[in-house]
Write a structure and sequence with these properties.
4 strands; 205 residues; four-stranded mixed β-sheet
Length: 205
Amino acid sequence: MTLLTESEQRQVAAAIERIERETDAELVTVLAARADDYTYISLLWAGLLALLLPGALNLVGNWLGAGQLLLVQWATFILCSLLFRLPALTTRLVPRPVRHWRASNLARRQFIELGLHHTAAESGMLIFVAEAERYVEILVDRGIASRLDDATWQAIVEAFTAQVKRGETLQGFLACIEACGALLKEQLPATHERNELPNRLVILS
């Protein structure tokens, strides 16, 4: 999985800067390679297979003694633990609700850590993407939520999610920023020039 290049990140920053000239909202974008390493999931699956698979095979053929069975179980556990650490496999082993729950938690932590709840007009907006989970979320502070409800962003999020699934993360960011900007310009137009938060794309690798 490849995160955006420096040139692509500059395109995202430029899009944010352009939008913020027309609205009082403070946009911040975050791109995470993955929301969690899911080590516990890999170990869980490895443990289950190590317990069940060698025993089931031995039950059919009765080839191994107790000591040999234990060694095979340990070897299976180690092999599966290493194999399931591969990101492509790990993500498939994690149920979608768990992946989305972890991504959503990370989005909320970023909202707080980046100070989006401390803007002067309570007008912070976070556009968050977790690539491995193919998860997109838009979070806004009270100044925006009082004018635009959560349902407003649903179509934008769905379109962006589809682009992330196709590997079009940059295009998704640019289209999402433009779509959000059009709504913000109408409901929260610029009243004065300010830039409280950095416009750069925050990368979490």
